[in-house]
């Protein structure tokens, strides 16, 4: 009897998963422990293992399809065995129980079931999946039907009306369907379309809204003279380039490595910044689990360097490089993105002078790092001289920390960045 492989729950926040890639084809022999597919969760892309021996009889879920947790995605059994797919919970995005409601427009636009397999022009017509199916069975030409749903979308009742009249259904005169936007030839920057929201993008949106709504943010900013930091980095990298790779010379320090190290050390000096609001209590974290932002195609991932306060600059640089590689290949495990106590985000490489990040709750703060810019400064002798200024800011959760704590943290961070040798101790 065939065994069904179900969509597993790979993270605490996961409600659906997307089949990113099939690594085994139908008809392939499968052994327990074989990786048969890659599953995109709300956080990363994970490998899916089979726990039975046999033949991959059927790929139930297609590549790119969102599947609810517990729903079957593949069947394994004996060669030639027939497969009857059992009923299973559908992914929330595929629901079309109430197509007249505005939410139907959003849900069906992101559901794989909304794509018709037919090659006629109805594929390009804005209609709900149910309306398309009904039109096909009743022989109604969707191109002659006017939609009364959200944004002029054709819904089930429009098709029924068209069938009764033997032609097209007309939208009520009081609520005409909006005209399609006009795009002048040669001026379009991209095709106008409604893109499905990935699991990752959906979770990012939800958490950012929760953070801004629940955590009262306040913002502080300070300027850092980065001249010594840049000079120290250049000298260290120049010396490391002379060392053979087998002796540790392959590493190249980035400005962000120094920032991560200094951020962790500043939290050691100001531990009250390394806190988390928990409703009835405030957690004082005993170690610095430092998250940092890595931009990927569909959003932002925040891998975590654990116990960063006890690691050397070199150790942090090596670990950060490894985590960045995993993030860009969507190979981070949930454990590598959990339990952070503070977050660093850097947009300096894009030339952004200054900005403030949204707090990665339950962290009490997030550090925002801008670009280093050539600016005139006044030295200790009162002279105006060239300077290399980096603007850093911190967004704080006022429930867990006060302004004085955030200011003290930035003060110590400024000292550490302007005297980078302290990071080598």
From TrEMBL:
MF-aspect GO terms: acyltransferase activity
Compositionally biased tracts (Low complexity): 108-120
Entry superkingdom: Bacteria
Disordered: annotated segments: 78-130
Residue ranges of domain Peripheral subunit-binding (PSBD) in the record: 126-163
CDD domains named in the record: lipoyl_domain
Entry keywords, A to Z: Acyltransferase, Lipoyl, Transferase
Domain Lipoyl-binding: 2-77
Cellular component GO terms held in the UniProt record: pyruvate dehydrogenase complex
Pfam annotation, one family: Biotin_lipoyl
Cofactor(s) recorded in Swiss-Prot or TrEMBL: (R)-lipoate
Enzyme class, spelled out: transferase
Alphabetized InterPro entries for the sequence: 2-oxoA_DH_lipoyl-BS, 2-oxoacid_DH_actylTfrase, Biotin_lipoyl, CAT-like_dom_sf, E2/Pdx1, E3-bd_dom_sf, PSBD, Single_hybrid_motif
GO biological process terms held by the UniProt record: pyruvate decarboxylation to acetyl-CoA
EC identifiers of the protein: 2.3.1.-
Function description: The pyruvate dehydrogenase complex catalyzes the overall conversion of pyruvate to acetyl-CoA and CO(2). It contains multiple copies of three enzymatic components: pyruvate dehydrogenase (E1), dihydrolipoamide acetyltransferase (E2) and lipoamide dehydrogenase (E3).
Family: Belongs to the 2-oxoacid dehydrogenase family.
This protein's name: Dihydrolipoamide acetyltransferase component of pyruvate dehydrogenase complex
Organism from which the protein derives: Pelagicoccus albus
Lineage of source species: Bacteria, Pseudomonadati, Verrucomicrobiota, Opitutia, Puniceicoccales
